[in-house]
Amino acid sequence: MRSGSMEGILDTQKLCSVIIVTYNSSSCIGACLAPLLGMSDVELVVVDNDSKDGTAAQVRKEFPKVTLIALQENIGFGRACNIGVAASSGSFVLLLNPDAVAPAQAIRTLIEFCKKHPRAGIAGGRLVDPSGLPLQSMGDRPSLLRLVLDKPMAWVAQRVGLRGLFRRVLGQWSAKFRLSREAEPVAWVSGAFLCCRRSIWNELGGFDEQFFLYYEDVDLCLRASQAGWGVWHVPDAVVEHQSGASFEGDVNVQKRIYYASQRNFFRKHQGASAASLLPLAQKLYCWRQSWENPRL
DSSP state, 139? Predict the structure, then answer.
């Protein structure tokens, strides 16, 4: 059961349904929606997780053609996405963070890629910060070893720069540090800008709602791969992401949510033994942790 209201639900099926989950996103939702309003074959759905800053009222007033689902409580990102997808009808589902700005061409690039590659179940684009520097938009299957080595490798990556031999070596070790120019299969792509065929979303059952926030995208991609579908990173689809602009709250609460989702993920995909060792790996990972989306 959910509480809330739905406004502006469309009757005709569209090519793509863009699902945007907001939480205290009044400072960024306008810039997110504006570039998409002229896409006649795209359905826009905003699911508001009981924002306290007037986000829902802003969408209702400034974007009356957008389908708004205003919830009466914050039910988490994964559940809210599932509700938005269920209320939409596009052949493709595209998840977009409210603090991301996606040009229409970036969305069409992902859709066209999926059309040309029938076994591509999920595709994600390249995320950059407002200055154009790359942010993490894909990754390898998480493991305890990768978690422990992530910070030292990030430290090295920042010092070797974006090009050269050492950067290529880092990219071979971890997809996180690879700056590909061509589309490639990966373990997962970021839910900040993720395109999925509706048929596959329905086959997988959407996001696993045990993940309140974080790791739901990684879990979805791994389940898609296990079902025989390809997960692709498409760097030609570029989206600006102002990471964290849509998260308003205590950073310690954010950490607790992140670690809870990480524990759920390792328990589900790595087993009880790996989950029991995770707290030690988390302590090593947090040695010099920054809660900003790291530049690569």
Answer: E
